[in-house]
Each structure stands twice: as C-alpha cells, then as structure tokens.
Model the fold of this input.
Amino acid sequence: MTPRTTDRHHLSAAALALAADGVPVLPLRAGKVPFGNCPRCTEGACGGRPNMKTPGPCTCSAPCHGWAAATTDPDVLTGTAWARAWRDAAAVGYHPGGAGLTVVDLDNAAAIAWARETLPATRVVPTTRGEHWLYRGATPSANHVRPGVDIKSTMAYARWLGPGAGTMAALPDVVRALLVREPAPVWSAAVGVSLPVGGGKCPHRSPVFLYRGIAMAEQRIAEAASAVHNTVYETFLAVLATHGRCGCLTETHTARLFTAAQAKGESPRHCADAWANALAQLGL
Done:
C-alpha cells in the first residue's frame, strides 16, 4: 500500500498499484462520492441512495456501485465501464474490509486526542480534518461510535490518502467494543402490537416449522445489506402470511423479529408500523 494520489491524472495508476497489493479500489467523484458505474444504476436509479454511498437492490450481473464496486480486478479497473469515471475522478476510494483492514476515522482534534490516550499506536494517515488510524483485521462499520469517530471496514469505503506512517497494529478489542451498543427496548405485543387471533397451535407439519421460520426471518433481516425498511416489512409479511391465521405467534416470536430489525437500525415505531402494515395487507 504505497502509491500516493496527489495527481488526479495518475489516479487509475495508483488504483492499479493498490489492487495489485490486494486492496479493492473504486473511483470517487468530488465530495468523496462514488460514481454510478453502469447506466442502470446512475444516480441511484436502482434504488440505492441518490449519492450512491449505499448500494441498492442492484440487478446487474455484478455489484457496480458504492462500496460494493471496489475491486482488485485490473480488467474492471481499466475497462470501458470505468474509463470515463477515472477521467473525471477526484480521488481513489478503497474497501478496507475487503483488504482485511479497519479504519478508525478521527474527524477532529478532540477525537485524535482520545485515540492517542486510548488506542494502541498504529499506522496513521493525515486527512483534511483529522486522521485515519489503520489496523489489521476487519470488523463491521459504524458511524458516530463516539464524538468525531467513525469505523470504516466491511460494507464501507474510505478515501485513499497515501500510505501513512507507522507500523500497522492488529485491530484491538477497544475498537471492537465501540461497535457494541445496548439494545433498544423492543416494541412488542405487550405495548401495542396486535397478534392475530387463532387456536395457538401451529398446524404446519410440526412446531419445528414455526421455530425454523422465525430463525430464517431473523437471518434474512440480519443479512440485509440495503433497503432495510423493505426487507423488514417483507419479512414480517412472509411470517404473517404463513403463521398469522393459525394464531401460533406469541410475543416471544414478535420480540425476536423486532430485535433483529432494531439491530439493523430500525426504530421500535418503524417495527410496529411495518407489523401493522403487514397485518393490514393480509386482512388480519
């Protein structure tokens, strides 16, 4: 990871050098915003956020925008699809998690002071407003884990600003701990969520069918990479379509589903609304 990207005319060359070192890269526009790298997905047409920072439910043959576009494939990096992007690019972006790295993004002097007192020394890259501290090891990404501090690793991208200085250390537990948050209180049937009326026994082959269905629903929500609102609603709808009329669902089941949704950032009210809308859609 040695290239520098001070000259915009050499950005693609820097990207190729990074890719050769196993670092997935992508072109960034001014404002650190990724390009829409295929006609279908330009400006979020596929359902991603308009600034392309979060991929939508892309139906192209391969991920083509946002962090998911980052690649080490030189044929993609130099191909016609990205030719114009590199001409117009303002910076090289990279996917830290794809390279087995985590970036602790320190946005101001107070955050830097906290890092120097709290985190083990590692490679440091100066940024416009602060510093990037790079560690070996990937982890989930999250913004605002504390004032002025973001974590960029999996499912995120960072701007490449040069190799930095210092020896890269292993990702410490103190950084992982920043990602652990207290669970929000679950908005369950006991506080306003209706459950369908029925006999209370699942007639679908055996009770295992219900348990397996709830577990699969939790997994589907947990694995949602985008369109979380829609995924939560569609998952609630699928559960209710299968089990809503026999009345086998309990507050324990809804609490599990709501907890999974809230772990993806949904509020208790969003969960309650999605549940109510699913009930209404099915006429329950």
